[in-house]
């Protein structure tokens, strides 16, 4: 759907642009039509900082990608299906009720998950 790239170190802006352009032009990534660029890029010229107690060699450059993807829908669907199968049998419900959770809260939670799945399906169809 969209991506944020955060670069640290001596990174050439031209290299970043070329990489992102390749992603777009070769259809290696599908972006939402309603997001104008689909990418957000941040560049920090200072070298990546590594805490002294980390067992990691220093590096000159690093990149972090944060993305939102519709592939997350599969675990949502599986979790919802698993929940419904157990809830239908009232499996483990007594433990939650013993802690003060009401049955209506289960219904509310599953309704929320179904709404999230529906929203992701709408994005996929666009």
From TrEMBL:
Coiled coil: none annotated. InterPro entries: Alpha_tubulin, Tub_FtsZ_C, Tubulin, Tubulin/FtsZ-like_C, Tubulin/FtsZ_2-layer-sand-dom, Tubulin_C. GO terms for biological process: microtubule-based process. It catalyses: GTP + H2O = GDP + phosphate + H(+). One of its GO terms (molecular function) is structural constituent of cytoskeleton. Signal peptide: none annotated. Keywords: GTP-binding, Hydrolase, Microtubule, Nucleotide-binding. Residues 1-78 form the Tubulin/FtsZ 2-layer sandwich domain. GO terms for cellular component: microtubule. Belongs to the tubulin family. This is Tubulin alpha chain.
């Amino acid at each position: 759907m969209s991506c944020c790239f955060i670069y640290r170190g001596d990174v050439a802006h031209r290299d970043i642009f070329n990489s992102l352009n390749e992603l777009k032009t070769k259809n290696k990534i599908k972006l939402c039509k309603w997001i104008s660029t689909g990418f957000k890029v941040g560049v920090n010229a200072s070298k990546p900082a590594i805490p002294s107690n980390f067992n990691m060699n220093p590096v000159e450059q690093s990149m972090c990608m944060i993305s939102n993807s519709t592939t997350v829908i599969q675990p949502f669907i599986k979790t919802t299906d698993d929940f419904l199968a157990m809830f239908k049998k009232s499996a483990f419900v007594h433990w939650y009720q013993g802690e003060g959770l009401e049955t209506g809260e289960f219904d509310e939670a599953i309704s929320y998950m179904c709404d999230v799945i529906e929203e992701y399906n709408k994005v996929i169809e666009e």
